[in-house]
Give the backbone structure.
Amino acid sequence: MDIVLLRRLIDGVLLTLYRRYTAKELSALCERLGLPAPGDGDTKHERLVASLNACADDCLPDVAKAVLEQEELGQAERMALQDVLWLGRHHVQIPSRTRRELAREFDLSDHLGYSDRFMALLGRLWHLDNDPLGGWTTPSNSLRSQIERHVIRFPDDWTTEYFFEQLGAFEAPHPRFGHFLEGLASSAVLPDEPAQRRFVELANRHLKPAGAQLSQHGEADGYPQFQLGEHGRGTARPPRNLIFATLGKPDIRFTSALDNDIEVAERADEVLVYDRPVGKEGLLWKHLLSWWQETRNVPDQDQAARALYSRMEASLPPTSPGQKNLFWHYHHANRDRLNDVPALLPEIWLHWDPKTLRQRGAHAMQNLRMDFLMLLPGNRRVVLEVDGMQHYTRNGGTEPDSTRYAATMAGDRDLKFRGYEVFRFGHDELRDRDRAQPVLAYFFASLLDRQPSGPSGVPLSAQG
């Protein structure tokens, strides 16, 4: 994320906001936006700028999000903030050619049947009205009025391709066009399931060759909800039950077999069950921490974070220093930005069978429990395994065991067919913390598309 640009854009917003509030209201404004208390200065603007200057870089995205949600902005200001935030997150790239070919085949008739909803979507994502940077002189010349005339009232005036051209859709940043597609498929814009599915089918004919697709992501008010993701990567559905940090095999029973509702019947204190919806961002540390605070009634965030970390760390096998080093490195390397990185869930149950492997015999599922799971944007499920000798030997590591190794690989293949990404580390490469640190730094940097950093959170290139 371009933090320098984001800070400059927020500074520009503050230049507008200080005129709307009295000096007495500045403290409440800063608190609402997540900024430090107003700083020193002779003017309201100087005090707000001092507050912004005191704001840490990793807090700026939350400040920008609060500004977008709570303050009335001009369309140019709003779009500039959105673009920086969206470009700094996971997004799907859709080439201009794909967008244009989709537009040429896209009949707007279904959407124009709900013209108010359609125009509301356009107003949220595109620059439609006069404003100081718009370049229009009268309301009658605004893009909004042109769309109302040539698309809504006289739909034969403009082709869909020309309409997209006027919006700027072909050159728009990838995340903005992605939000546009999701909006066009949404029941909030098109409350007609057959029409929703017609649009999704049309869009996917063009998106899939470019490595993208709209896939169903649950329901809202009885209508399907669709999310843009990478074609052939990730799973079709968000997880329903996350059973992790287990100290033993959970005793699970169905409270409603019809609805797939489960509970841990006994020894519930030996497992953690995250049962909240996982959204488009995946499961971040801040989501996990919020769940822990509310379910454990711990109002102090720092205290809750330490308790949650300790509880998860306690589930790691004492005989696997490699797992402990991986867990320690991830949290310490990201300690200054932990809220915005995916949660690293240890000892996660991916399969569950009430019978043992011996009881189930030839039909037993392999790899019931994995070392770590991460839920990334786009429904990506990433499994991390630290393989000790037990994965490929028998008799306490004295003899190779090709059968055991083959079973492990078969389990991996099954997971990959289900959409999981599986990464394996040899225990020896993580056994020593100093040796493990650069291996893990570059692995997580590649996985999360960020610069590798050491356990202090400082980029490796700056550590000398």
Observations:
- Residues 242-462 form one domain.
- The CA atoms of residues 117 and 188 lie 7 Å apart.
